[in-house]
Design brief:
Membrane protein involved in the export of O-antigen and teichoic acid; 15 helices; Polysacc_synth; 0% strand; globular; 415 residues; mainly alpha; transmembrane
Length: 415
């Protein structure tokens, strides 16, 4: 069994997906560096705060239908049309409602960011409508075991954003944030059109579209909540930083947190490669699943510890990479290293619970973790200053990782 895992489809899938995610890492790193230098710490802190809020709300747009699509198509490919028939309408409706909530929240709760309304609309439409719709064909590829291909599709809009950022940086318009926001929107629009072109029968005919039944809504609700809470810890902290810290300090924190988040992509590759098998075998073959889970969590912990050590050593390089305006970024990244192993374990635990058909358990402990993040950030940011944000994030991530793994161990013992 040990060598089966090391040489099997999950290991091979992890290697292929890690390679693709390596491309994604390069693209995201390039975009982060260009946008951060182009905007400066203050504007970047504001942009990171409002865009993170859009990403958080955007996780609710599909209302969990993308997870249902993965689960159903991984077992029966012919089920895609029936799922898409209600996934597309519910994504469109939820996205429009969430767009109104997003704009109202930014205007009322984050007026200090000073982001123009046109830029807010561009960011909101991108993250709340176009990206969720684009995620449906990506979910299909993942369900069919084409993990690397699904990640390549995810890289496309990110690569287009990189091109946009580079163009804005070189042209140096009077309002670079507004210009980049327009390109941000255009990148996702082009990617959505490309997905429709390369995916056979990408969308079912409009005459087949329908609203989900109550039973289907109950089924997707758990996945929707799980998707929301799983992305919350990776995004909510940037919005909190924009609210609790001076915008220049929020920019330092957001840049450091983005660097840390991008570095955990290989764990995402490993977990994604295991998802189809866990959906198929999770509860039906508990012994095989238990063995697989030991490898998943062992690898997640080992990678987290090694990554934290490496990032702590190379942290001084980031002051030079981001430029003089980001002086102090090295210290911020060193403090953020405390959260890295917790992040990798939390990512693994949350995905495993969803594949074991226990999304509400994940929602429960991640809501607790988000509550701890908000309370700890509010206290620590005012008492110990800027380092309070990375300390609050580390506390939240380790708490969620410990509770999530404890729940899985308990479930395996019962099995």
């Amino acid at each position: 069994m040990r060598f089966e895992i090391l040489r099997g489809p999950i290991a091979k899938g992890t290697i292929r997906t890690t390679f693709v995610l390596g491309m994604r890492l390069v693209v995201q790193a390039g975009t982060l560096l260009i946008v951060a230098r182009m905007l400066g710490p203050q504007q970047f802190g504001a942009f990171a705060g409002v865009s993170a809020l859009a990403v958080i709300l955007g996780t609710l747009s599909t209302f969990g239908t993308h997870v249902v699509l993965i689960k159903s198509v991984s077992s029966d490919r012919s089920s895609r049309h029936d799922i898409l028939a209600y996934a597309i309408p519910i994504t469109t409706i939820c996205g429009c409602v969430l767009l109104g909530i997003y704009l109202s929240t930014v205007l009322l709760a984050l007026p200090e960011t000073g982001i123009p309304m046109a830029a807010l609309i561009a960011i909101g439409v991108t993250e709340l409508l176009m990206q969720p719709l684009y995620g449906l064909p990506i979910a299909e590829r993942l369900a069919m075991g084409q993990v690397a291909r699904s990640q390549l599709m995810q890289v496309l809009p990110l690569a287009l954003r990189l091109i946009t950022a580079a163009a804005v940086f070189m042209l140096a318009p009077a309002n670079p944030l507004a210009a980049y926001a327009a390109g941000y929107f255009a990148a996702s629009l082009v990617a959505l059109g490309f997905a429709a072109m390369i995916t056979r029968d990408c969308w079912p005919p409009v005459r087949r579209w329908r609203l989900p039944s109550q039973r289907e809504l109950r089924h997707t609700a758990g996945y929707a909540a799980s998707n929301f809470t799983s992305n919350g810890p990776g995004e909510l902290d940037k919005t909190l930083a924009a609210k609790l810290l001076p915008l220049a300090m929020a920019g330092l924190y957001s840049a450091g947190a983005r660097v840390i988040g991008a570095a955990t992509l290989p764990v995402v590759a490993m977990v994604l490669s295991a998802v189809p098998r866990l959906f198929r075998e999770g509860r039906a073959q508990p012994k095989r699943t238990a063995h697989l889970l030991r490898w998943v969590f062992g690898a997640a912990l080992a990678y987290g510890l090694v990554l934290a050590s490496i990032m702590r050593l190379i942290a001084p390089c980031f002051d030079w990479i981001f430029g003089a305006k980001y002086h102090g970024l090295d210290t911020m990244i060193q403090w953020l290293c405390l959260a890295i192993p917790g992040i990798t374990l939390r990512l693994a635990a949350g995905t495993v619970l969803v594949t074991l058909d226990k999304p509400w358990l994940r929602v429960g402990y991640e809501i607790a973790g988000l509550t701890v993040l908000v309370v700890a950030a509010s206290i620590l940011a005012t008492t110990v200053g800027t380092v309070g944000m990375p300390l609050a994030l580390a506390l939240s991530e380790w708490l969620m990782a410990a509770v999530g793994i404890g729940l899985i161990v308990k479930m395996q013992r019962l099995s």
